[in-house]
């Protein structure tokens, strides 16, 4: 077997982790663990800065300023973004963040004293006021803004590395816009450099885009994926006394049926090869039925039994017109068969329902990578 590696896509809002193994000799990729992520992106640093401003100037003032002076608030966040990108573990000089004039003026009118007084009263020792109209943040203050988000990312990667399916990782690729941060690069290197080789590619912010383009040119490069969810359809089954709850009993034309059964096609975290097809056969509930509707459901767990279970949600519907072919002759020729199939492994699930008697079919697609 080939090398195993983790890709940590660190963006603005989330950090997403995938684990792949290179398959030899063909050079295709096999997904070893379903993609996982969390809200640990660069926006966490922005929120920490906003929290610091609230501590210095007051929650009520910041809320009012954002509502009454939205353009000035955007200017302030842009100024912070530039300083955030300049933050580095080796930096010893302060980082200056320009406060818009409207912020300084609005604060004086709102509170009756100036921002310098607010800073002094707040006892935030690592942030000073500059006479040029700037907040002067020490490297330690900037480091404190980064720490909660970086700690979450480190914990997330560490949890993944401890899973049995993810043993023998050789490389950790750090990609995405937030991966440009020297603060994050240093922290990841310090935490995992002894366990695997940490690689930050050139043009790290464009890596995901380049990968998407390469995948578009050759979709077969990822040969095996892990299903992010459990997928199935809602069906009627014969009611079994003692097995099925009474509230699921449906009596139709003298027959007892159990409604809302979740019939699985693939379970969460199950390996699915590119182009793999799962088929199931069903019969219409009534002999003279003109149309059959198949509802497709998904769930985060694999122990689901009914479509009414917590966490189950509908992700698609296909409607197949049966026409009136053989309405009267159904009993003589046997029950009509509807064949449902799901094709997995690509970025979309292709769902097909086929009426075997008339060869009439309908198709639908569901996003396979989205939760």
UniProtKB/TrEMBL annotation:
InterPro entries: ATPase_NBD (IPR043129)
Gene3D superfamilies, per the entry: 3.30.420.40, Actin, Chain A, domain 4
Domain of life, per lineage: Eukaryota
The name this protein goes by in its record: HS12B protein
GN (gene name): Hspa12b_2
């Amino acid at each position: 077997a080939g090398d195993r590696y983790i890709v940590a896509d660190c963006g603005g809002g989330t950090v997403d982790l995938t684990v792949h193994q290179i398959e030899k000799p063909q050079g295709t990729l096999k997904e070893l663990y379903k993609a996982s992520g969390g809200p640990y992106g660069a926006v966490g640093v922005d929120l920490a800065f906003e929290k610091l401003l609230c501590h210095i100037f007051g929650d009520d003032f910041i809320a009012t300023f954002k509502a009454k002076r939205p353009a000035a608030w955007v200017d302030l966040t842009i100024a912070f973004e530039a300083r955030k990108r300049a933050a580095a573990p080796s930096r010893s000089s302060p980082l200056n963040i320009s406060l818009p004039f409207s912020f300084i003026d609005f604060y004086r009118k709102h509170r009756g004293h100036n921002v310098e007084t607010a800073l002094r009263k707040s006892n935030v020792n690592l942030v000073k006021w500059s006479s040029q109209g700037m907040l002067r943040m020490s490297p330690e203050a900037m480091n404190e803004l980064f720490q909660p988000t970086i700690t979450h990312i480190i914990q997330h990667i560490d949890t993944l590395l401890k899973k049995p399916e993810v043993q023998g990782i050789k490389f950790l690729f750090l990609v995405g816009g937030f991966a440009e941060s020297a603060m994050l690069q240093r922290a990841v290197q310090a935490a995992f450099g002894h366990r695997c080789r940490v690689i930050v590619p050139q043009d790290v912010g464009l890596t995901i885009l380049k990968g998407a383009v390469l995948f578009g040119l050759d979709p077969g490069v990822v040969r095996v994926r892990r299903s992010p969810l459990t997928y199935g359809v809602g069906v009627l089954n014969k009611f079994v006394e003692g097995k099925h709850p009474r509230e699921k009993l449906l009596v139709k034309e003298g027959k007892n049926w159990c409604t809302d059964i979740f019939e699985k096609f693939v379970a969460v975290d199950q390996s699915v090869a590119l182009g793999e097809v799962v088929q199931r056969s069903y019969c219409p509930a009534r002999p003279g039925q003109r149309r059959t509707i198949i509802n497709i459901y998904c769930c985060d767990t694999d122990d689901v039994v009914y479509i009414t279970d917590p966490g189950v949600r509908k992700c698609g519907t296909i409607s197949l017109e049966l026409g009136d072919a053989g309405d009267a002759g159904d009993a003589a020729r046997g029950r009509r068969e509807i064949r449902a199939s799901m094709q997995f492994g690509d970025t979309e699930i292709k769902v097909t329902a086929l009426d075997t008697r008339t060869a009439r079919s309908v198709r639908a697609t569901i996003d396979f990578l989205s939760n």
